[in-house]
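PROTEIN DESIGN WORKSHEET
SECTION A - STRUCTURE
LENGTH: 463
TOKENS:
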């Protein structure tokens, strides 16, 4: 580039202006500098393992971190964790161990005291049935070490309004929206905590699918707060790096947990349910008369025998979990409890845990993910998060298929070697504790896993 001396600058009207030429050169340099920085940013991302449906092994655990300090036994009565607790069922075993221990020591949640427990607030409607997860969380948070009565030491703030209780009292969806809006507006006007972050350090919990809709009346709740929901579908506004997938668990379980019984599992695959989605219609039409897959077009009638449906889980290798009218279903956690490897025919977004990245790296990571999906890396439009999928490597204990694979379902399952099936089954037994609710809560159970998800997010989004 030619350096133009001040004495050479001419402001006469004849010819092209050297000043314009100088401005053009500076603009060119600025553009090249921007492109260079952009290239370097993308290149730095490539040096770290990108989010991918295929996980390439686990982190090496240093020998000094194999076991936890046995003197730290304030863990709800759970036994001391050993190396087996941090096996390859986790994306980052060592990061999980260290962060979990830090969470137990430091994490605090403040529960807003407003609202009459006899109406829609504070307490659960019940802790049984297919929406038991919501009830258990409302109960567990009050029983746990994480609750604080001092809002100034809180990391997060819990908005204790239960749409399940509203549903039980016959409240219409329209009225639910108004009740939620008025309650949150009251908290905003009464307390200073929401306005400090515009609600990004607040969260609510709902398992009923109508609960997600009830909160949609407040745009700030959708945009800013952490939503812990049983219906984590991306096509209804679920934001994976902000929101949390709540496992839908049908408790109490009708029968004891299965596992370590591979020799008894002689049926290749099993599904029984209503044909209330396209994938279920196809599944029933293609496979209901097959001799190796136990596929029923409707739910099993109780008149056929006591707990026939549940007992079929015990003798099956792979339990098919297709999406229904809603993406959430207790069928996946039923399969895990009874030791039947879940196979899902809806696409799930898998990513490495965000605990490996800094905040800025996490933001860039999700940008890259979004671009990847947009440009066709993923071929299905209806996809959702499985519970704890940024912590657990689901491919170590489940079979994840695309919907188009339903036509080749039997061959895909038969092609899985017996040794791989045994490995999947053994890993499934290891994660059963993560999909079980207890009162009071127990270390590593569903409640603690949800709290861990919240702990990972409590410092990610701030204004």
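SECTION B - SEQUENCE
RESIDUE ASSIGNMENT:
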């Amino acid at each position: 580039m030619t350096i133009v001396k001040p004495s050479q600058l001419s402001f006469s009207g004849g010819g092209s202006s050297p000043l314009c030429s100088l401005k053009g050169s500076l603009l060119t340099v600025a553009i090249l500098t921007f492109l260079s920085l952009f290239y370097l940013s993308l290149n730095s991302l490539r040096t770290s393992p990108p989010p991918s449906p295929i996980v390439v092994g686990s982190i090496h655990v240093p020998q000094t971190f194999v076991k936890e300090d046995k003197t730290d036994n304030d863990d709800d009565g759970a036994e001391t964790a050993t190396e087996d607790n941090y096996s390859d069922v986790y994306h980052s075993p060592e990061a999980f161990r260290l962060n979990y221990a830090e969470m137990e020591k430091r994490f605090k949640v403040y529960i807003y005291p407003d609202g009459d427990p006899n109406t829609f607030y504070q307490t659960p409607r019940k802790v049984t049935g297919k929406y038991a997860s919501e009830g258990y969380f409302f109960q567990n948070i009050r029983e746990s070490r994480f609750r604080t009565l001092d809002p100034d030491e809180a990391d997060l703030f819990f908005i204790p309004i239960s749409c399940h209780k509203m549903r039980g009292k016959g409240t219409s969806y329209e009225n639910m929206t108004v009740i939620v809006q008025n309650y949150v507006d009251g908290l905003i006007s009464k307390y200073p905590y929401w306005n400090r972050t515009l609600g990004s350090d607040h969260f609510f919990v709902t398992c009923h699918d109508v609960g997600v809709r009830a909160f949609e009346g407040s745009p700030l709740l959708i945009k800013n707060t952490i939503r812990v929901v049983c219906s984590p579908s991306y096509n209804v506004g679920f934001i994976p790096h902000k929101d949390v997938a709540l496992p839908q668990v049908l408790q109490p379980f009708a029968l004891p947990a299965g596992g370590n019984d591979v020799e008894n599992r002689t049926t290749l695959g099993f599904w029984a349910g209503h044909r209330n989605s396209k994938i279920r219609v196809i599944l029933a039409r293609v496979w209901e008369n097959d001799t190796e897959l136990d596929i029923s077009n409707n739910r099993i009638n109780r008149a056929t025998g006591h707990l026939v449906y549940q007992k079929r889980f015990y003798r099956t290798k792979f339990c098919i979990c297709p999406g229904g009218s809603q993406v959430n279903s207790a069928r996946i956690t039923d399969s895990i409890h009874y030791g039947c490897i879940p196979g899902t025919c809806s696409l799930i977004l898998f990513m490495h845990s965000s605990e490996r990245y800094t905040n800025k790296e996490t933001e860039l990571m999700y940008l890259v993910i979004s671009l990847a999906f947009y440009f066709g890396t993923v071929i299905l439009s209806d996809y959702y998060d499985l519970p704890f999928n940024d912590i657990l490597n689901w491919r170590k204990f489940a079979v994840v298929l695309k919907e188009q694979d339903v036509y080749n379902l039997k061959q895909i399952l038969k092609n899985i070697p017996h040794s791989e099936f045994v490995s999947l089954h053994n890993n499934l037994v290891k994660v059963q504790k993560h999909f079980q609710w207890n009162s009071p809560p127990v270390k590593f159970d569903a409640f603690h896993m949800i709290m861990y998800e919240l702990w990972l997010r409590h410092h990610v989004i701030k204004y």
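SECTION C - NOTES
The chain has 15 helices and 13 strands.
The radius of gyration is 26 Å.
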